[in-house]
Request: fold
Amino acid sequence: MTDIPASPARKPPHILTLVALVSLSTMAMNIFLPSLPSLAVWYETDAQTVARAVTLFLAVNATLQLVIGPLSDRFGRRPVILGGLAIFTVASVGCVFAPDVETFLAMRMVQASVVVAMALSRAVIRDLYEQDKAASMLGYVTMGMSVVPMIAPFFGGWLDGAFGWQASFWVMAIGGVAMFALTWVDLGETAPMRGGSFRAQVAEYPELLRSPRFWGYCLTSAFASGTFFAYLGGAPFVGSQVYGLSPVALGAFFGAPAVGYLVGNGLSGRFSQRFGVDAMILTGAVGQAAGLALLLVLTILGFDSPYVFFGLMSFLGLGNGLVLPNATAGMLSVRPHLAGTASGLGGAMMIGGGALLSELAGHLLALGGGALPLIALMVVSGFIAVGLVLLTIRRNRRVGQASG
Reply:
């Protein structure tokens, strides 16, 4: 990949800068997961309490996206990204020195400000490209960062074993400083300046909310990614409590979906412009649901092992790699002049739904039954995504791609 071509009025970043921004946001979500048992011991609390470091992070992540989208449409992508990265860096250090679990969870919530890196990277791409090309570029960006979910949990598990759970948060703080510097140097402003007040920007939400196509792409994305967030909330428990994996082994197994995600994003980057976003979304949703259904059947039949469970999670990653870049491009293209707002609102729906599914996964697993409750929840979420994309395609055909 080469530099994103500049337009006369805008100063786009190198594509690797966007990859790094999205990678930092992803790393902040999962590098510390193998340390959850260590956190519970350190703070002398139970596993469900420290697991809220995931769900609270996701909940604040979703809420912030409702604000950062309109803010970036009003004031530009660059200042909002820089501000979010600065706050994230300070909060990462705060996690290290938190004296009790309540303070740690509060700092973890503040860390969610790193969402600016992911949400506004999407908006930057949509500022520069039309729908299908934007989907292709999003595929390449997320393919470039998909290695992070593979190596971050393994790296985090190794850091925990070698230096303690605090090491992962020091890595996040260092990453925040590095990305602030890179953004300052390389990321020029790409948003068309529109003027008007922040209240006026927020007032344009109804223009998006009245569009069935926007809802279709958002909800498809939310339920497809909901399978991953359920995995995020439940897999550490399944790996450590059901299969008895050590933090290092759990970190190695945990990154399995990222293998499929890498492949799916590569396919999106290569074929989205050729076949269109709807075909790519449908292919990904069906593939993901089928793979998870196979896992459910095998688990019921007694083929239950970490190799089967984590291995078939590659279908989860493959489906997300096809669905998410294309659904994101679709939702940002419904009202292109509101790309930042659409990115924020759509991201809030996706992450907010993910937080609920992550919390639900934890509660279901607490009831017993091994990995089966988590797998069943993921299968339901995956098949809902298939139904939603079919409804969205039907709507698109009915209106002939007109705004709806």
Summary: Residues 15-190+197-399 form a domain with the Growth Hormone; Chain: A; fold (CATH 1.20.1250.20).
